[in-house]
C-alpha cells in the first residue's frame, strides 16, 4: 500500500474570483450569494498584531481569510472536481489530498503514477499547484517495493512517517 500526501496551493491570478463564481453558479448558488462572496473577497484589508504591536492596514491581493469556514468551503468548491478520472482512492480535506493505492502489482504502481499525472493536469486547469516540498510518499506494509513516484517531473520524497491531520502515520 502506498499513501501519497499532497498539499495544494492556489496560484495567484487575476480572474480567480470569476472562476470561483462560475463554479458556485454551476453548484446552484443564486446571484445574491455569489455577489456576497465576490464582495467579501474583493477589496479586503488586514493587519496583524505581534507582541502587542499592531501593523498598518494592508490590502489583501488574493485568497480567502485564513481560518474561516468560508475559506474551507470555497476551496472545496474551487477544487471539488480535481478527482475527476482518478483510479485510486482519493481523500480531500481543505488543501490536503491523500492518494492511496495497492502496489503489490506493476498495474497498481502504474495506476498511482497515472493518477499523479492526472492530478497535476487537473490542478493546472483549476489554477492550482502542488507544494512539492511538502508532498510525501509513505510506503506501507511488509515487502513494499518502495517505488519512486513523480509529480510534475519532480520525484516525490518518501518518508518513514508523516502527520496527517495531526495524527502521526508510520
Describe the structure.
- Residues 21-143 form the Reverse transcriptase domain.
- By secondary structure, the protein is of the alpha+beta class.
- It has 4 helices and 14 strands.
- The protein has helices at 16-26, 31-41, 69-78, 106-125, and strands spanning 2-10, 45-46, 49-50, 53-54, 58-59, 89-93, 96-101, 128-130, 136-139, 150-151, 154-155, 157-158, 162-164, 167-169.
- Strands 1, 6, 7, 8, 9 and 12 form a 6-stranded mixed β-sheet that branches.
- Helix 1 (16-26) packs antiparallel against helix 2 (31-41).
Q: Give a quick account of the main beta sheet: strands, pairing sense, barrel closure.
A: 6 strands, mixed
Mean pLDDT: 79
The shape is globular
Point out poorly predicted stretches. Answer: none
- Secondary-structure-based class equals alpha+beta
With helices defined by DSSP (H or I, 4 residues minimum), what is the helix count?
4
DSSP strand tally: 14
* Helix and strand sequence: EHHEEEEHEEHEEEEEEE
Which percent band covers the strand fraction? 25-35%
Radius of gyration: 19 Å
Helix content: 25-40%
Report, as a whole number of angstroms, the end-to-end distance. Answer: 12 Å
List the SSEs and their pairings:
Blueprint: E1 2-10, H1 16-26, H2 31-41, E2 45-46, E3 49-50, E4 53-54, E5 58-59, H3 69-78, E6 89-93, E7 96-101, H4 106-125, E8 128-130, E9 136-139, E10 150-151, E11 154-155, E12 157-158, E13 162-164, E14 167-169
Helix pairs in contact: 1-2
Amino acid at each position: 500500500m502506498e499513501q501519497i500526501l499532497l498539499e495544494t496551493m492556489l496560484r495567484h491570478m487575476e480572474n480567480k474570483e470569476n472562476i470561483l463564481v462560475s463554479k458556485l453558479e454551476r453548484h446552484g448558488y443564486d446571484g445574491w450569494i455569489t455577489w456576497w462572496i465576490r464582495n467579501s473577497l474583493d477589496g479586503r484589508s488586514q493587519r496583524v498584531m505581534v507582541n502587542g504591536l499592531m501593523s498598518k492596514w494592508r490590502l489583501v491581493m488574493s485568497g480567502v481569510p485564513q481560518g474561516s469556514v468560508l475559506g474551507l468551503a470555497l476551496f472545496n468548491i474551487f477544487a471539488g472536481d480535481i478527482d475527476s478520472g482518478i483510479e485510486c482512492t482519493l481523500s480531500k480535506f481543505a488543501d490536503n489530498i491523500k492518494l492511496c493505492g495497492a502496489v503489490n502489482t506493476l498495474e497498481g504502481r502504474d495506476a498511482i503514477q497515472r493518477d499523479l499525472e492526472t492530478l497535476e493536469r487537473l490542478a493546472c486547469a483549476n489554477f492550482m499547484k502542488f507544494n512539492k516540498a511538502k508532498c510525501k510518499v509513505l510506503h506501507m506494509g511488509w515487502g513494499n517495493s518502495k517505488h519512486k513516484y513523480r509529480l510534475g517531473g519532480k520525484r516525490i520524497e518518501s518518508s518513514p512517517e508523516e502527520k496527517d491531520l495531526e495524527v502521526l502515520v508510520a
